[in-house]
Request: fold
Amino acid sequence: MLVAICGMFASCYEKEEIDVPTPSTTPAKYYVKGIVTDATTGAVMTAFTVNGQSFTPANGEYSLQLEATGVQTITIKADNYITLSKSIDVKALPNGETGTYVVDAALEPVAIDIPDPEYMTNQYNINGTLYDIDGNKVKFATGDKVTIEDQTVKYNVGENTFTVENVTPGNYIAFVNVAGYTKTYAQIVITEAPLKEGTGVNTIVTRANVVLQKIAEEPEPEPTAKYYIEGNIWGANNVIVDGATVEISLTNGQSFTPSINNGYYKQEIPAEYVGPTVLATVKVSKSTYYPFACSFLMVPVSAGQTSVSTVNITLIPINKDTTEDGSIGGNTNLNPVENGKTEVKDKDVIAQEEATPVVKEDGTEVKVTINDVLDAMEEATGETVTADKITTVTTTTELNKDLVSDIVNADGTVQQVKDIVSLPTSAVVIYTQNEGEGSTVAQNINVSRDLATEKAEAAVRTYEGTPKGVVFATPLNITFGSEIATTEKADYLLPVLYYNETNKTWVEDKVQGVVNYAMPQDNGQFKAEIRHFSKFKFGFTSKIDKSKEEAPLAEEFKPYPCFTGNYDQIITVKGQYKGGSRYIGNTPQLEADAKLTGVKESTKKHVVELLQKMIKADNMNILPQPNYKDVAFSQDMSISPNQQIEGFTITRSEKETTYSITVIKADRTPVTLTVTVASVVSYKIAPKQTPSHGHGHGDDLNTGGGIVDLD
Reply:
């Protein structure tokens, strides 16, 4: 039934001539509308915000006018619920028209109210200070120099400090040449620090105290070199850590225990203990933090010169990252430096050394060199090796640690999930990353479970390995459980995938062309071999394809003859259109039944759940239906005077998105499952009208209260 009530009465008399409406000068209007529900109960939400604007509807509906065209981000928030965002592409319309975009959302409640963390960008700076051997400041004079290869060093005449900004973690050597003092080499070691919560830039300053020796007026018979190791100890969020224990040891058996004052330590190393191949190891321990150790090659200097090695250390607290649903991702720390033999080798030499072979599908072994692993790392992660001197550690004992995560189940219970991270005896750990001079720095290795990324991906596990660029000639082993096979051996393999920071994609790990898989074990576990560090995951390869352009659906015409009089008529048109989202072809379950033949039902179930999770994550937590559903609409519009209306047209735009997951069966056969979803992303309601002379046919829009109901 069509009901129309107009807010103004028009003349019932005929006009002497036909009015031809002029083009509208009113700018087009754009709206985003939708319904917000609770993803757990399905009940409508009665309090939420959309792009910061508050809504308190009894029926969960909202309508927000958009002020611009182009790609817009719609963000829906509610207290104690996980925030969702979606981008829409608002197309420009002619003047006088109205475009409406549809964004429904199903919000998931959070187990505990934890705000989304933001992390600052770490910027590493060097701040050096010159002193003489008695602790007096040494100021720069004209002609004095400080140089660090490939870096811009800033200093001023009359001051005793120099600075270098925006360097990367690594090993740097500062050459200090000040008149009246011996040439001095200051080694500055910058280790990677954890990210700090917040926004903007987190500046991490490595303070290097460079001690200079005066040139004696009378030549000394036997001048000696001076060596110092010093630095600061930091904890979470760059807070100074006091009360830690520092031990410095040399490969020739000498050891030292410097005192710590307000997080700063300093130790003089007698010159007779320093030789061309002497490595120094700095170990730091403190309760509630993982123990830390790093090793580096000391730089010998000539008699009468001074070498200062600055090693600033950021300790990693023994805690875990919490996600919005209350789950806590574990982390663990291995210390090969303290449990191994450290060496420094030329990059070209180590590249030719053998690594653990890889096994092809037919069971044959393929020989692998370190260079092959470095090539695999570069292909997968984009990391390259620039240092000429590479520090390696060979473990002298097996390193085996538990990585325990607290996972909140759907029913609210908490389950402790234990993974195992291990390195066998005689494993060779290679530290490849160093943007400065000298050798790379050997240090602790850390593995943490990244639950936030894991939830958004088709992954069984996602981890972050640090420091980046660590290579394992003998692979690091990670053993973990599967959600599907809890006691029996799984009938599928899980590719090892690395996140490439350059092109922002997940890339299969391959060595010598052989794909690396996490292999199923008899007890329902998986075992994976990790050959290099960055962010990596074990899971099926997945893809979301949005390349198909948005397209209009067939126009729907709803006939309803009516007419206007001598004035503009403001009306509200209500009705229904077919919208929402639907599957084109197979649903995830039908696709799994068709493609995954000969696999266990538990495997099919898991793959179906992964596909559904991908679709929900991309569609504001809403799964498609087999067919479009009836969606109610309400739109205000102005009808020009003296118009004969034949009815109203409904124009909808549809967007198709394809979701795919590739499963590797136990016999290494790849099977790709593909599901296509179509969604009505926008609609437009317009009258089909022609100018009229006098009374038209149909209902007179002077009656009905300004509401047109097309139901």
Q: What stands out?
A: DSSP finds five helices and 54 strands in the chain.
